[in-house]
Fold this sequence. Notes:
Structural class: alpha/beta
CATH class of the largest domain: Alpha Beta
CATH architecture of the largest domain: 3-Layer(aba) Sandwich
Strand order of the largest sheet: 2-1-3-4-5
Largest sheet: 5 strands, parallel
Oligomer: single chain
Radius of gyration: 19 Å
Shape: globular
Helix content: 25-40%
Distance between the termini: 60 Å
Amino acid sequence: MIPEIKYNCLIIEDEPIAMEIMEHFISQNKDFHIVGKCSDAIYANSLLKMHQIDLIFLDLHLPAIKGFEFLKRLKNRPHVIVTTAFHQYALEGYELNIVDYLLKPISYSRFQDSIEKFKHLMNAEKAILEIEDRDFIFVNIAKRKIKIILQDIFYIESIREYIKIHTKQEVYTVKMPISKFEKDLDENNFIRIHKSYIVSRSKIEVMSASEITVNGKKLPIGRTYRPFISN
């Protein structure tokens, strides 16, 4: 029986030896299928248009367009695991919600940790199970389905790969990127004000040019989000 392939991945790497190592590592995991491999971002963009990609293994120092610049240009980017010899770009990578940052030379055990993190995120994305009439949402927390009334949400806070959903009842913690959660919210009812915050429009108590107060909590307005927020 042919094993089911769960995740399609793309390798973007301009060093032949590093490319071979990554191919070998990925081939050891039956849940992954290499859809394509390339050495530059321009060809990678073409492959992304032709295939449904779940995960990109991305080197940063590429010809023509560098790795992070390539990511910033993608509208609906897949999950990304960065592979690089340079540690100084780690912070910028996490600001772009990458799954992991692998420093070369990469050991197989470190690679395994990284793809397990990816799998966990993929499963977490399934935590949003259902939105019915935009009134409530179910999330999976500790193997339980928790119903959250959307009108009860004050704001959503991002902490690395987790989000905290602040509601009238309690604060729920879910392992999921805030960008993924944002896609399932009605923009008429919720607004992104910062890379780390989404707020319920109806719960806004005070608004200024630099911050919004929700449930007594002052939240900063990110510079890039200010043009989209009306006083």
